């Protein structure tokens, strides 16, 4: 038996065999995180550009609805 097997502990001399990778620059890290998220969540993934697109679409639809309501209100006024 070796000394560390008898004592139940492993001696802490030397360096760790696994070295961490150098840190990624921020834009690359965020792009990587987004890609991993999209891969994990698939069709449920939601990013900023998609959210902006939905907001613009909703704004256009709401503006169209307001215009339609105004036009109907003008027609109703003319009928009276």
Descriptive labels:
single chain, 80 residues, mainly alpha, 3 helices, 66% helix, 0% strand
Walk me through what this model shows:
The protein has 80 residues and is mostly helical. It has a domain of 33 residues. 66% of the residues lie in helices and 0% in strands. The longest helix has 32 residues. The chain is rod-shaped, with a radius of gyration of 31 Å. The model has no long low-confidence stretch (mean pLDDT 78).
Number of strands: 0
Can you summarize the main beta sheet? none
Mean pLDDT: 78
Structural class: mainly alpha
Shape: rod-shaped
User: What is the subunit arrangement here?
Assistant: single chain
Compute the CA-based radius of gyration: 31 Å
Count of DSSP-assigned helices: 3
> Which blocks of ≥5 consecutive residues have pLDDT under 50?
none
Order of secondary-structure elements: HHH
End-to-end gap: 105 Å
- Tell me what portion of residues adopts beta-strand conformation: under 5%
Helix content: 55-70%
Summarize the structure.
It is built from 3 helices and no strands. Helix content is 66%, strand content 0%.
Topology:
Layout: H1 3-7, H2 26-41, H3 48-79
